[in-house]
């Protein structure tokens, strides 16, 4: 029978194994993490009322170098709060590693088949209301975010403009966290509000592949781009691509720019044409070491074979392709030979009859996606968003004015090319006035463009487009009506000798 150790403050008290001597102070112990980088041991099991966690921290006596285990045992949500604080007191690096191991352990447990009912996952027996989205409650998630931030509850209350008593009730799961309050917390903590209301979603990384070199694994020859089955733990899956059937593999190619990327795909085996897409393919292929066929999985670019019936797979890594050592000359190794060699290097395996094909939906670099800098940017969201929107709106309005002027200029130039009586004095005057207007409008366009984009960008990008008359716009019917009215007004005024050039330009 499991025993939970509680203090008077309803906190689960640790026990030491072996027991500390009576005259021994806990301050005389040092964490083994400082010397050996030993991580706490985390174990979780399913109980009648939920998940029970057992966490062991390792300490060494400064006096006699004896190792002591500090053991916490209890419901996972309560034990997490205590142990996360214990890890943070030892060191921030340990705290981050503890959180990663904790989440991985919990996800793996809940995604295992139940011992009581092999047809169900432990997740289904956890009696939560929202399935996989309720593995951790908002209170536990808020506690975790608060610990990671290094802030106190009082600091969070001030930054989020939330009553301090309310925060403590949220942390104790006495009050439900509303959407509005979650947004306030998220702004202060530098995270997505969804990360406070719903736990992160994790999937298993079931294998890895080297996109550059082949290898020998347990006397079996493994091709480059071939996926070998390994238990590589779990990875956080972005909510945008999460589905119940999503799977993940890791690219393990130290000399490739793809190294450590995670490839996500849906194991749906859809019967579609995936031409030129990056896919995961399963096929029965003979092993080159013993000649026996076996089920093998590859990642590559899907190409229909020239016979129209089978499939070729091309490399996803351009570093695989190399023309090194091939020197064109007059008799051998012509340019065509070099091209053929390069094209041949693209092919991983050919003439496949796959039993499984699934498109890769995303490549993600976890180190970049979940970096600490993301938190800082999130905290400055309002400032960054506002500034960017102001710049975007200004640029859009200025560019729109250039587009309108370009439209009128083109209409006027087309009008001048039409059949006009050049012998008529009024017509000649009209031509001169319209030409002057066109020149003035070009000058105004340049002024607007330089003000909006700066001299360097205007000269390099905007002016060439404008000069080539490639500025296009999808005007609304109202805008187009006003532009046509303006054109007609210009033509009418140009035919009236009483109007000066300045009045026409206005």
**Approximate strand percentage:** 15-25%
- The CATH superfamily title of the largest domain: lambda repressor-like DNA-binding domains
Low-confidence parts lasting 5 or more residues at pLDDT below 50? 1-10, 465-471
Rg from alpha-carbon coordinates: 34 Å
What would the keywords be for this entry?
single chain; 506 residues; alpha+beta; 434 Repressor (Amino-terminal Domain); 3 domains; 7-stranded mixed barrel; 5-stranded antiparallel β-sheet; 16 helices; extended; disordered N terminus
How would you describe this protein?
The protein has 506 residues and is α+β, with helices and mostly antiparallel strands. It has 3 domains: 15-196, 434 Repressor (Amino-terminal Domain); 201-366, no CATH class; 382-505, no CATH class. It is built from 16 helices and 17 strands. The longest helix is centred in the last third of the chain and has 37 residues, at 381-417.
What would a concise description of this structure say?
With about 500 residues, this protein is α+β, with helices and mostly antiparallel strands. It is built from 16 helices and 17 strands.
Outline the secondary-structure elements.
Elements: E1 15-17, E2 29-31, H1 33-36, E3 41-47, E4 50-61, E5 67-75, H2 76-90, H3 92-110, H4 138-149, H5 153-160, H6 164-171, H7 179-189, H8 194-197, E6 201-209, E7 215-217, E8 220-222, E9 226-229, E10 234-237, E11 246-251, E12 262-266, E13 278-286, E14 293-304, E15 311-314, H9 335-346, E16 347-352, E17 356-364, H10 366-369, H11 372-379, H12 381-417, H13 425-453, H14 455-467, H15 477-494, H16 501-505
């Amino acid at each position: 029978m499991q025993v939970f150790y509680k203090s008077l403050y309803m906190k689960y008290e640790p026990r030491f194994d072996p027991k500390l001597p009576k005259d021994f102070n806990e301050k005389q112990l040092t964490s083994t993490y400082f010397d050996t980088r030993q991580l706490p041991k985390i174990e979780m099991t399913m109980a009648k009322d939920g998940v029970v966690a057992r966490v062991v921290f390792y300490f060494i006596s400064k006096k006699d170098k004896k190792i002591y285990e500090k053991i916490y045992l209890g419901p996972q949500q309560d034990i997490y709060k205590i142990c996360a604080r214990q890890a943070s007191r030892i060191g921030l690096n340990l705290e981050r590693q503890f959180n990663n191991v904790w989440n991985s352990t919990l996800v793996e447990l809940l995604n295992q088949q139940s011992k009581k009912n092999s047809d169900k996952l432990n997740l289904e027996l956890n009696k939560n209301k929202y399935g996989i989205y309720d593995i951790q409650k908002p209170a536990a998630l808020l506690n975790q975010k608060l610990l990671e931030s290094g802030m106190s509850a009082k600091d969070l209350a001030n930054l989020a403009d939330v009553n301090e008593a309310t925060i403590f009730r949220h942390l104790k799961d006495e009050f439900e966290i509303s959407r509005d309050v979650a947004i306030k917390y998220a702004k202060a903590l530098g995270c997505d509000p969804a990360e406070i209301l719903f736990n992160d979603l994790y999937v298993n990384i079931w294998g890895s592949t080297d996109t550059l070199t082949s290898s020998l694994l347990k006397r079996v020859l493994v091709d480059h781009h071939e996926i070998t089955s390994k238990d590589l733990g779990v990875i956080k899956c972005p909510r945008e691509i999460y589905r119940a059937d999503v799977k993940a593999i890791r690219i393990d190619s130290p000399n490739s720019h793809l190294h450590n990327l995670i490839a996500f795909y849906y194991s749906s085996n859809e019967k579609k044409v995936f031409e030129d897409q990056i896919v995961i393919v399963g096929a029965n292929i003979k092993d080159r070491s013993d000649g026996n066929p076996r089920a093998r999985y590859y990642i590559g670019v899907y190409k229909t074979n020239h016979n129209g019936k089978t499939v070729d797979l091309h490399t996803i890594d351009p570093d695989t392709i190399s023309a090194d050592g091939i020197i064109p000359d007059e008799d051998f190794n012509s340019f065509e030979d070099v091209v053929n060699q390069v094209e041949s290097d693209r092919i991983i395996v050919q003439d496949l009859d796959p039993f499984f094909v699934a498109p890769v939906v995303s490549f993600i670099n976890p180190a970049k996606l979940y970096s600490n800098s993301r938190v800082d940017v999130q905290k400055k969201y309002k400032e960054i968003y506002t500034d960017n929107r102001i710049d975007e709106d200004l640029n859009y309005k200025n560019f729109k004015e250039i587009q309108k002027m370009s439209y009128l200029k083109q209409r006027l130039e087309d009008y001048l090319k039409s059949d006009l009586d050049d012998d008529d004095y009024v017509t000649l005057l009209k031509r001169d006035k319209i030409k002057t207007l066109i020149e003035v409008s070009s000058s105004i366009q340049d002024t607007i463009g330089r003000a909006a984009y700066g001299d360097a960008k205007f000269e390099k990008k905007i002016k060439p487009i404008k000069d080539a008359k490639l500025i296009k716009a999808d005007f609304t019917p109202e805008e187009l009506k006003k532009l046509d009215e303006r054109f007609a007004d210009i033509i009418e005024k140009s035919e009236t000798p009483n109007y000066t050039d300045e009045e026409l330009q206005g």
